[in-house]
Amino acid sequence: MSILVSTGLVGSVVRYCCLCMVVFYNHVTFAIQENIEQRYAIKFCVKLNKSATETFASLTADYGDATLSRTMGFKWHKAFKEVRENVEDDPRSGRPISSTNDQNVEVVRAVMAQDRRLSVRMIAEETGLDKNAVHRILTDHLHMRKIWAKLVSKNLSVEQKANRLEICQYLLGRPKIEPNFLDKVITGDESWVFDYDSETKWQSEEWHTKSFPRPKKACMSRSRVKTLIIVFFRQQWHCAQRICTSRTNS
């Protein structure tokens, strides 16, 4: 019994919604037709050389509360006075295309092939697609993501990369020609060492019960005195070292 009642209630709601949609559609259609009719009347008054004020007064007398607003009435009067003939609204661009079909995917792919630094908004403006559709195409269909350039010490040219490769291949093959070649290679390294480093928060952790008060320590900054250690090595022994001490500004 409850199922029958629920089904009947749903049917009543659906019929009521359909009726509201029909009434709304009829109301909108009637309003549009009435606006077109008033535009024809304004155009006729312009042909009679009536002023905008006189034309709006005539419309108010004939249509009452359904009259166009004063702003719209004067706007159409000026348009017809400037030799406009069409009483219909000008065509609008409408909402951007939001479809993600194969054709739109290829359009976005072609745009990205020209410039990969375009934002989603720029691609949407260039293709006429919706921004959400462009984002879906880039991520779901083209499987692309925006990444930042990696910082490197130096950008090598093609010639420089080829030169480095040639040198590496030469060094790899040199021990075969000269077995004692690696004995002549000296390797160097350097590192800055501070006199002391302040203790970190994690290093000061201690195990205590909940009743034990929290330990305290004074704030310490990193040592202003640091030492540069430079060390050189050969294959079998330590060759030389140099220690330089300097003081940094706090």
What are the key terms here?
three-stranded antiparallel β-sheet, disordered N terminus, 11% strand, mainly alpha, 250 residues, 4 domains
What is the element layout, followed by pairings?
Elements: H1 2-47, H2 52-63, H3 70-81, H4 102-114, H5 120-127, H6 131-141, H7 158-177, E1 187-194, E2 225-233, E3 238-247
Antiparallel strand pairs: 1-2, 2-3
What is the number of independent domains? 4
β-strand number: 3
Q: How many individual helices?
A: 7
Approximate strand percentage? 5-15%
Radius of gyration: 41 Å
Give the helix/strand class.
Answer: mainly alpha
Q: Write the H/E string, N to C.
A: HHHHHHHEEE
Runs in which pLDDT lies below 50 for 5 or more consecutive residues are 1-6
- Describe the oligomeric state of these chains in a short phrase: single chain
Could you give a short description of this structure?
With 250 residues, the chain is mainly alpha-helical. Helices cover 49% and strands 11% of the residues.
Please tell me about this protein's structure.
The chain is mostly helical and 250 residues long. It has four domains: 2-81; 102-141; 155-183; 186-197 and 221-250, no CATH class. It is built from seven helices and three strands, in the order αααααααβββ. The protein has helices spanning 2-47, 52-63, 70-81, 102-114, 120-127, 131-141, 158-177; strands at residues 187-194, 225-233, 238-247. Strand 2 and strand 3 form a beta hairpin. The chain is elongated and about 110 Å long.
